Amino acid sequence: MNEFNPIQTPSLKGITEKTKGDKVIWALVLVLALVSLLVVYSSTGLLAYKYNRGNTEVYLFKQIVFISIGLGVIYFSHRVNYKIYSSIARVLFLISVPLLVYTLFFGVSLNEGSRWIRLPLINLTFQTSDLAKLALFMYLGRLLSKKQDVIKDFRKGFLPVIIPVIITCVLIAPANLSTALLTGATSMLLLFIGRVSMKHLTATIGLALIPVSFLVITAIVYYDKEEGRCKDLPALLEIARMPTWIKRVQNFIYDSKQVDKDENYQVNQAKIAITKGGIMGLGPGNSEQRNFLPHPYSDFIYAIIIEEYGIVGGAFIVLVYLLFLFRSIRIFRKCPYAFGAFLALGLSFTLVIQALINMAVAVNLFPVTGVTLPLVSMGGSSFLFTCFAIGIILSVARNVEQQESPEQLNQTQNPAVA
Predict the structure, then answer these.
(1) What is the mean pLDDT of residues 93-97?
(2) Same domain for 271 and 400?
(3) Sign (positive/negative) of CA torsion 285, 71, 316, 381?
């Protein structure tokens, strides 16, 4: 038996020894992956009935594959020294910009918006906005770290960091306004932490609020309270996804009784799911609204979590994401180099804010968006880019550990050992 053990587990032991970084974040990733398996398997019943003759195991297997690939992405990306990401950040950003332009004009249409591009040969689609967000925050981390000495200067410090944000958000907005606003808000938060001048940030936020205010005012002006629907819009407003944005703002502002049931169908079904869940929930696999709620496995998966696991389960998910943010802030504070600190904080902010927005939509605290719940919603390109972002955060944490461990630090500085 003793002779068998070394042969039985060397690879697993080797992987375990090479798995570094914040152990709490690793544990949180595994917890969210387990939750994802349970809820996706439960919420794909209707999807399986439509396309796979009720065989839900197909989607369970797909999710297992995505989670396995995602964990592999996290592992290998966390093994890369995060300083290498500084070298590729600019190239990745320059690649993402033409991809966004291509998606805007030639992307696969979904819900009246071009959000996806189809990859040749393998015939798969992915959201270029996911790549653009990742590239933007890597590039911002690089710029902020290099321009700390002149960060208060408008021309030398502020313009170089705000221009990439504007370009990215403007290119994402026509197809996916919610993602553009989320990316912009997270960028402003990161710039604030990066010591950018408050007067520059305030002016930028003020300018950004002009189109947002216009959208809200337009939604109020063109709402027919008597009929509970949007009035006929002038041709000038029938551009891009403007009618969809206006209707979503109207549905959020006005009481559900005043809005056409068909227009507010998603929100109403989510409310029913949450009401049925109560404190402790209906139990795993016992969701009833999964058969009525559109996209219960992606955009509204949090409503299914509450229906099956109750407010207790919903609160637990919130705490998981907040703990993830807390551990990332801890990495930020301990990281001795500015690039790593900004990189970990920027990526963690965008993931946690996206999660909070998704959950806020499900409980009707925010207008309906198309953002998924990171690491929980059914696998896709967004799932894999999320795993890549987490791997980068853990790469920063791994290097922080090496800085704190004299023995590991000596090994990394010794070329023979490396």
Answers:
(1) 94
(2) yes
(3) negative
Own/partner pairs, 360-367, CB within 8 angstroms, 24+ separation: 361/299, 361/300, 362/270, 362/274, 362/300, 362/301, 362/302, 362/303, 362/306, 363/270, 363/274, 363/302, 363/303, 363/306, 364/252, 364/267, 364/270, 364/271, 366/252, 367/178, 367/248, 367/249, 367/251, 367/252
- Residue 377's CB is within 10 A of a number of other CB atoms, namely 26
pLDDT digits (tens, 9 = 90+) for 157-198: 999 999 999 999 999 998 888 899 999 999 999 999 999 999
Split into its structural domains, the chain has a count of: 2
Provide φ and ψ at 211, rounded to 5°.
Answer: -65, -35
Dihedral angle sign, alpha carbons of residues 175, 176, 180, 186 = negative
Q: What is the pLDDT of residues 188-224, one digit of tens each?
A: 999 999 999 999 999 999 999 999 999 999 988 888 8
61 with 117, same domain: the answer is: no
Which range (45-49, 110-114, 326-330, 370-374) has the least confidence?
Answer: 110-114
71 with 129, same domain: the answer is no
* Claim to verify: residue 215 and residue 270 sit in the same structural domain: no
Q: How far apart are CA 44 and CA 284, in angstroms?
A: 13
Dist. CA 135–CA 149, nearest whole Å: 23
DSSP string, 104-150: HHHSEEETTEEEEEEETTTTEEEEHHHHHHHHHHHHHHHHHHH-GGG
Residue 22 within a domain: no
**Which tokens hold the place of 296?**
């219960």
State whether 271 and 146 are in the same domain: no
Indicate whether 112 pLDDT > 60: no
Q: Does residue 226 surpass a pLDDT of 80? A: no
For the chain, the average pLDDT equals 84
Which of 156, 191, 221 is where one domain is finished?
221
Nearest-angstrom CA–CA distance, 234 and 237? 6
Phi, psi of 2, rounded to the nearest 5 degrees: -65, -30
